[in-house]
Amino acid sequence: RVAAPSQEWRVTQEGHLERLTANGWSRVLANETATFRAVAVMGNDVWAGGAVGALFHSNDGGQEWKAVSLGGAEIGAIISIRFDDARHGAIVTDVDKRWSTSDGGATWTSQ
């Protein structure tokens, strides 16, 4: 099963991360300066990525978030986040850099 944006999450044309609530779409991580480009959901895990390698993770369905560092320079903008299951995922950037994880995102390896 590939994690994809669920119907509860989206990235707007302006690069804002939003979640669908009972009151409509609500902006998430509004205090972050990152322009978001990708979101993936796998169970309660939500991953959001964007400009300059910005990557954020929530393991509680989007209530609490933490920034995740991929390390290195010339990361580019994250344009794709995919998870095959809760442990195995991959990230692709607009400068064709790729990272993968086999431990649920605790560590990422450049490909």
Account of the 3D structure:
The protein has 111 residues and is an all-beta fold. It has strands at 9-11, 17-21, 24-28, 36-42, 45-50, 55-58, 66-67, 78-83, 89-93, 98-101, 109-110. The protein has a four-stranded antiparallel sheet with strand order 4-5-6-7, with no helix packed on it. It has a four-stranded antiparallel sheet with strand order 8-9-10-11, with no helix packed on it. Strands 1-2-3 form a three-stranded antiparallel sheet, with no helix packed on it. Strand 4 and strand 5 (45-50) form a beta hairpin. It is globular. The relative contact order is 0.18. The mean pLDDT is 90.
Keywords for this structure?
111 residues, single chain, mainly beta
Instruction: Report the C-alpha radius of gyration, rounded.
Output: 13 Å
The end-to-end span amounts to 22 Å
**pLDDT < 50 runs, ≥5 residues:** none
> How can the largest sheet be summarized?
4 strands, antiparallel
Spatial order of the strands forming the largest sheet: 4-5-6-7
Which of globular, elongated, flat, extended, rod-shaped describes the shape? globular
In a few lines, what is going on in this structure?
The protein is an all-beta fold.
List the helices and strands and how they pair.
Blueprint: E1 9-11, E2 17-21, E3 24-28, E4 36-42, E5 45-50, E6 55-58, E7 66-67, E8 78-83, E9 89-93, E10 98-101, E11 109-110
Antiparallel strand pairs: 1-2, 2-3, 4-5, 5-6, 6-7, 8-9, 9-10, 10-11
